[in-house]
Design brief:
InterPro entries: TPR-like_helical_dom_sf, TPR_rpt. It comes from Flavimaricola marinus. This is Tetratricopeptide repeat protein. The protein is an all-alpha fold. The protein folds into three domains: 47-124, Tetratricopeptide repeat domain (Serine Threonine Protein Phosphatase 5, Tetratricopeptide repeat), CATH 1.25.40.10; 136-224, Tetratricopeptide repeat domain (Serine Threonine Protein Phosphatase 5, Tetratricopeptide repeat), CATH 1.25.40; 229-284. Helix content is 77%, strand content 0%. The chain has helices at residues 2-21, 25-49, 53-66, 71-83, 87-99, 105-117, 121-129, 138-150, 154-166, 172-185, 188-201, 206-218, 231-247, 251-264, 270-283. The protein is elongated, with a radius of gyration of 29 Å. The protein starts with a helix and ends with a helix.
C-alpha cells in the first residue's frame, strides 16, 4: 500500500514545476515590479517621517531625476523641503505638483502652507481662494485663519479657528495660535481661556504655558497658573512674568519675580541675572 504514495510525491512536484515553467516572463516581471513598488513606497514613508530631512530632499531629487512625472515623488520632495526648513525651495516644488494633471485640492493647500512659511501672505491667500469650498480639512482652515489674522480680519479668523478645532483630534496647536491671535488684539481674558484649553489637550506644550503667563501678566495677574511645569519651566515662566511686569512699570514686582526666577532655576539663569542687574542699575 505504501508504493503508490511514494510515486505520487514526485508527480506532484513535476506538476508544480511545469506550472512554474508556464508562467510568462511578463508575469514574472510584473510581479517583481509590484514588489519593488511596495518596497519603494515603504522607503518613501521612511524618508518623510524618520529620515534626516536634508537626506530626504536629496533622495526625492534623485528619484525625480529618474521619474520626473511621478506626482508621489514630487509631493515627497515638497514635504521634505518643508521638514528641512527650506520653504523658499518648497514653493516651486509644490507649484510643480499643483500643475500636475493628477493634482488635488490638498496639493494647493500644501503650496499655500509653503508660501506662508516664506512670508508670502498675499500669494498664499490667492492660492487658498482657488481651493474649492467643498475641500473642508483641518489644514485648510488653519491656514485660512492665519491669513485672516494677518489681514486683521478678526471675525473671519475666529470663524476659521473654530472650524479647524472641530476638524482635529489634536487641537492644542491651533488653540494656542487662536489664543495668540486674541493676545495680539488685547483680548486677554479670551486668550487666557484658549491657552488653558490648549494645555488641557497637551499639558507639555511650553509655548502655550508661556503665552498663558503673558495673558495673565497683561491683566496684572502676576501669580503663576496652576499647571504642570518642571523646575526649569517654572523659572522661565517667572522670568516672562517679570518682564511683563517691568513693561507695565510694575518695577518692584518685576524685580521680585526676577529674583525668584534666579533662585528657582537649577542652573545659572544668565538672562534673568542680566535683567535684574539692568533694573538695579536704572534704579541707582
Amino acid at each position: 500500500m505504501r508504493h503508490p504514495i511514494r510515486f505520487l510525491i514526485p508527480v506532484a512536484g513535476l506538476i508544480a514545476l511545469v506550472a512554474c515553467d508556464s508562467t510568462s516572463d511578463a508575469e514574472v516581471s510584473r510581479a517583481l515590479q509590484d514588489v519593488n513598488v511596495v518596497d519603494e513606497s515603504n522607503l518613501n514613508d521612511v524618508m518623510l517621517t524618520v529620515a534626516d530631512p536634508n537626506e530626504a530632499v536629496a533622495y526625492f531629487q534623485r528619484s525625480l531625476a529618474d521619474n520626473p512625472d511621478r506626482i508621489d515623488l514630487m509631493r515627497g520632495l515638497g514635504l521634505s523641503m518643508i521638514r528641512a526648513g527650506r520653504p523658499t525651495e518648497a514653493i516651486p516644488a509644490w507649484q510643480n505638483v499643483v500643475a500636475h494633471p493628477e493634482a488635488t485640492p490638498s496639493d494647493s493647500v500644501e503650496l499655500a502652507d509653503a508660501l506662508i512659511r516664506a512670508n508670502r501672505w498675499d500669494e498664499a491667500e490667492a492660492v487658498l481662494d482657488s481651493v474649492p469650498p467643498t475641500h473642508e480639512t483641518f489644514k485648510r482652515y488653519r491656514l485660512e485663519a492665519m491669513v485672516a489674522d494677518s489681514n486683521e480680519e478678526w471675525g473671519n479668523a475666529d470663524s476659521f479657528y473654530e472650524i479647524a478645532v472641530g476638524l482635529t483630534t489634536t487641537p492644542a496647536g491651533v488653540l494656542n495660535n487662536w489664543g495668540f491671535s486674541k493676545l495680539t488684539r488685547g483680548d486677554y481674558r479670551d486668550a487666557e481661556r484658549l491657552f488653558t484649553d490648549a494645555l488641557r489637550h497637551e499639558p507639555n506644550l511650553f509655548t502655550a504655558k508661556n503665552n498663558l503667563v503673558l495673558a495673565r501678566g497683561a491683566q496684572r495677574n502676576y501669580d503663576l497658573p496652576v499647571i504642570a511645569m518642571t523646575q526649569i519651566e517654572r523659572a522661565q515662566l517667572l522670568y516672562t512674568l517679570a518682564l511683563t511686569a517691568i513693561k507695565q512699570s510694575d518695577l518692584t514686582i518685576g524685580k521680585g519675580l526676577l529674583q525668584e526666577a534666579i533662585e528657582t532655576h537649577p542652573q545659572h539663569f544668565e538672562e534673568a541675572v542680566r535683567a535684574l542687574r539692568a533694573l538695579e542699575d536704572d534704579a541707582t
